[in-house]
Amino acid sequence: MRIKVKEALNSEQSQENILVKGWVRTKRQSKGFCFLEINDGSCLKNLQAIVDEGMPGYEEIDQVATGASVCIAGNLVPSPGKGQAWEVKASRIEIIGKADPETYPLQKKRHSDEFLRTIAHLRPRTNKYGAMNRIRSEMSYGVHKYFHDKGFNYIHTPIITGSDCEGAGEMFVVTALDLDKTATQGKKVNFEQDFFGKQAHLTVSGQLNAENLACALGDVYTFGPTFRAENSNTPKHVAEFWMIEPEMAFADLSDNMGLAEDMVKKMILHARKNCPDDMELFAKFVDKSLESRLDNILNNAFVRLPYTDAVEILEKSKQKFDFPVKYGLDLQTEHERYLCEKEFKKPVIIYDYPKEIKPFYMRLNDDNKTVAAMDLLVPGVGELVGGSQREERLDVLESRIDDTGLNKEDYWWYIDLRRFGTVPHSGFGLGFERLLMLTTGVTNIRDVIMFPRTPNSLEF
Question: Per-residue pLDDT for 15 more than 90?
Answer without folding.
Answer: yes
